[in-house]
């Protein structure tokens, strides 16, 4: 006698409801997440604690709030890099071993400070110091 073989179906897992739930969760998280961009970041300027270096000979480059430059108290005609390089060369008398102290206003644009640093480098100075303020003591 020949028995008929019964083919058993393998149990199948239906993934359709699982995929539906995953897509719903994805949509939920995309809708509830806020994508806000801040257009202005508040930056706290660094403070330096330590002793100030007293140099006997130095050149002070001042960058004011409007982006203008002054070398040892004498204001430059314009804010161009070439003017600043020429002023540094005249003020130093060709001595590039002098310390250059860069004093920038807290409200000045960063580009003005970078331009001053570029001019100091072009003039051949190797020593640059950036002036900072002393930390304010907080009372408790």
Automatic annotation (TrEMBL):
<keyword id="KW-1133">Transmembrane helix</keyword>
<protein>
    <submittedName>
        <fullName>Biopolymer transporter ExbD</fullName>
    </submittedName>
</protein>
<keyword id="KW-0813">Transport</keyword>
<dbReference type="Pfam" id="PF02472">
    <property type="entry name" value="ExbD"/>
</dbReference>
<dbReference type="InterPro" id="IPR003400">
    <property type="entry name" value="ExbD"/>
</dbReference>
<keyword id="KW-1003">Cell membrane</keyword>
<keyword id="KW-0472">Membrane</keyword>
<dbReference type="GO" id="GO:0005886">
    <property type="term" value="C:plasma membrane"/>
</dbReference>
<comment type="similarity">
    <text>Belongs to the ExbD/TolR family.</text>
</comment>
<feature type="transmembrane region" description="Helical">
    <location>
        <begin position="12"/>
        <end position="31"/>
    </location>
</feature>
<keyword id="KW-0653">Protein transport</keyword>
<keyword id="KW-0812">Transmembrane</keyword>
<dbReference type="GO" id="GO:0022857">
    <property type="term" value="F:transmembrane transporter activity"/>
</dbReference>
<dbReference type="GO" id="GO:0015031">
    <property type="term" value="P:protein transport"/>
</dbReference>
């Amino acid at each position: 006698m020949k028995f008929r073989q019964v083919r058993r179906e393998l149990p199948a897992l239906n993934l359709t409801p699982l995929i539906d739930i995953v897509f719903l969760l994805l949509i939920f998280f995309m809708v509830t997440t806020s994508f806000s961009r801040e257009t202005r970041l508040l930056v706290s300027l660094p403070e330096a604690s330590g002793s100030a270096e007293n140099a006997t000979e130095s050149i002070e480059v001042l960058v004011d709030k409007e982006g203008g430059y002054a070398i040892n108290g004498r204001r430059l005609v314009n804010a161009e890099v070439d003017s600043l390089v020429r002023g540094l060369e005249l003020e130093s008398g060709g001595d590039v071993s002098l310390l250059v102290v860069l004093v920038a206003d807290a409200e000045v644009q960063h580009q003005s400070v970078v331009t001053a640093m570029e001019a100091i480098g072009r003039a051949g100075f190797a020593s640059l110091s950036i002036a900072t303020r002393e930390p304010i003591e907080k009372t408790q």
